[in-house]
Specification:
mainly alpha, 57% helix
Length: 195
């Protein structure tokens, strides 16, 4: 699109158009956008830098084209041909040059926006995180105690022992200490007298 924008002054204004020189910066911008599309897998910074250079080239092309009408308005111009130009000033813009200028400016601005949206998709794509295996941050638990050998060898004895504990709970339950008696507080004496 940027290259087509650079061709518009030539196509609509003819080869004698004063805006034909804008094809060079527009072509550089088009090559930059193509390089951005080709380098999108390299890195985001590289793609952004190439897009920036391409955008500068297109903006330079737009400014060089738009400087001609400003120059004609500021310095003045010769009358329309076939009248003779005795002052040596440039002639006014022809209809083809004016149409080429408008088409090139519109396509150049659109190509900047399209390139920007392409750059946004590069910056918003999902980058998979680098996988690092998990690292244990707490010390490992100590091994569980093994049961005593007599319980493993004789399960009936283990059942009897638990039955004995259930039959005599008072022997195995710890006793709580007796509650302490708190000292009595003196009676409250009021400093105001009641009538």
């Amino acid at each position: 699109m940027a290259f087509v924008a650079g061709l518009m002054p030539f196509v609509l204004g003819g080869s004698s158009s004063r805006l034909v020189g804008a094809i060079v910066p527009f072509t550089i911008g088009a090559i930059g956008f193509a390089a951005t599309a080709a380098l999108h897998n390299q890195s985001r910074g590289t793609a952004g830098l190439v897009y920036f250079v391409a955008g500068l080239a297109i903006v330079y092309g737009l400014m060089s084209m738009l400087s001609l009408p400003v120059r004609l308005a500021a310095l003045g111009s010769c009358p329309v041909a076939p009248d003779p130009c005795t002052s040596g000033l440039p002639r006014v813009l022809s209809g083809g040059e004016n149409n080429g200028l408008g088409a090139a400016a519109a396509l150049g601005i659109i190509s900047l926006f399209v390139g920007f949206f392409g750059l946004v998709t590069i910056y918003r794509r999902h980058v998979p995180p680098v996988f690092t295996p998990p690292v244990r941050k707490i010390p490992p638990m100590p091994p569980a105690p093994t049961p005593s050998p007599d319980r493993r060898a004789n399960p009936e004895a283990a059942a009897v022992n638990t039955a004995d504990i259930a039959a005599k709970p008072e022997e195995h339950e710890p006793e709580l200490p007796a509650p302490e008696e708190l000292p009595e507080l003196p009676a409250h004496e009021s400093s105001t007298s009641t009538p």
